[in-house]
Fold this sequence. Notes:
This is DUF2177 family protein. Keywords: Membrane, Transmembrane, Transmembrane helix. By secondary structure, the chain is mostly helical. The chain has five helices and no strands.
Amino acid sequence: MFYINLYLLTVPLFFLIDMLWLGVVARDFYRGNLSHLLADQVDWVAAIIFYLIYIAGILLFAVVPGLAADSLRKTAVAAAGFGFFTYATYELTNRATLPDWPINIVFVDILWGITLCTLVGIAAHFIGKKLMAAGRN
């Protein structure tokens, strides 16, 4: 039950942070650089499935090991690494295969992936600590 609760509490946090970035902070940046490649409509089913899997990855590869080691630092470093490798894979694959994929998008998105995963990982670590403490009472 601990992992389900951790996941369910992390999902809205991830969505809030990423939607703030995509919908407010960097919206014009992406439109200005990718308008020639963007679909008219988002496939929300695919997007939501991706997000649900991705959040599980942050928990599995960063938060759970960090909690097991009782180390916020381990969580943060692993979450940053997860963000780097996953976003770099996506961005560099796009750069290699899609015509006119802007190099500035590659760099900004990789930095965003590191930031997003680190923020979510740290927050989920604290959520996990609270859940663990509540479970002991």
